[in-house]
Write the structure tokens for this entry.
Amino acid sequence: MADPEQFWFPAKRYGWGWGLPITWQGWAVFIVFIALLVAGAFLFPPARSTFPFLVYTLIVSVAFCVVCYAKGEPPRWRWGDE
């Protein structure tokens, strides 16, 4: 019998979305996400090129959300312990 799929990102206890990663793969994705955001601040300095920086940040954030959606617990509104 195959192991059940392990989620990289658990659902938050309250609200909609995901919490901090719980596997090394999730942590690797999270660290790459943060590194890309920091790199974007150097590639597109916000003081000089605000619009390109915002577009870059949006693209990186959407990519991160896609990974969270694919590898995290199914999203739904949560009200704590059920």
